[in-house]
Automatic annotation (TrEMBL):
Keyword check for Transmembrane helix: yes
Native organism taxonomy: Bacteria, Pseudomonadati, Bacteroidota, Flavobacteriia, Flavobacteriales
Name of this protein: FUSC family protein
Chain ranges passing through the membrane: 24-41, 47-63
Keywords tagged on the record: Membrane, Transmembrane, Transmembrane helix
Length: 83
């Protein structure tokens, strides 16, 4: 399914797709929290390097993933339809 298909979805399909992406969002948030914990541990031990940069890269990739953008578009469509 592409981003252009979102306005063509029925109300039930739109809610189902939002439900699927919400669980992805929760998993994403937990993983980002874990990676932030690694970064804080690295700061506490005064170590800069690969142990700090790798989690930062993964956090960036998780925030800018296509699923995150799709979830935002679906939530906007749900708001427009007042569901």
């Amino acid at each position: 399914m592409t981003n252009t298909d979102i306005p063509n979805l029925s109300d039930a399909e739109l809610k189902e797709e939002a439900k699927k992406l919400k669980s992805f969002s929760l998993q994403n948030s937990i993983f980002i929290g874990f990676l932030m914990g690694i970064i804080f541990y690295s700061f506490a031990k005064n170590t800069w390097g690969l142990f700090t940069l790798i989690p930062l890269y993964f956090i960036y990739k998780l925030i800018h993933s296509p699923k995150s953008k799709r979830l935002k578009e679906i939530e906007l469509t749900i708001k427009e339809r007042s569901l």
